[in-house]
Prior knowledge:
By secondary structure, the chain is of the alpha/beta class. The protein is built from 5 helices and 8 strands; from the N terminus they run αβαββββαβαβαβ. It has helices at about 10-20, 40-50, 90-105, 120-130, 150-160, and strands at about 25, 55, 60-65, 70-75, 80-90, 110-115, 135-140, 165. The protein has a 6-stranded mixed sheet with strand order 4-3-6-5-7-8, sandwiched between helices. A two-stranded parallel sheet has the order 1-2. The chain starts with 8 loop residues before the first helix and ends with a strand.
Amino acid sequence: FVCTPSAVNEEILRACAAIGVRAAFVASAGYGESTEGKEAERRLVALANELGLVVAGPNGQGVVATGARMCAQIVAPLPPPGPISIVSQSGNIGSSFMNYACLTGIGIAKAISCGNSAQLELADYLEYFDEDPETQVTLAYLEGVTDGRRFLDVARAHTARKPLVLVR
């Protein structure tokens, strides 16, 4: 979980790769959400690809895995364990879903805020949840897609195996 100023994140990813880290969630802002950060985001993804790292984010609120009792996010409700996994293109909406789960006792398996989706996009998370044995239902909050054909193909494949609730 990388929550540092964007100027130091490339160095941090290099250090992570050097010790065998294979994935990182980058919560830091200062990337593609602003015109000035688009080049920094491109460099971050290029470096991650070069290092063999998978990078979620940047500019996301975090990730939750209740089975591992992991709540690595900026706004931290840790919902009770359960069968629903959440992927959200809005950190606040994702946190709202988890807060509601806490209030009602509805169980969550995993949750992730996509942030800018620089390397991984919502369809990638749907593919993961499709294979995840802890996920029985997926809840996705969608603001937009860059590859509509791929998204539709992945969503169709996912719904053939598990229910998908899509909030737009």
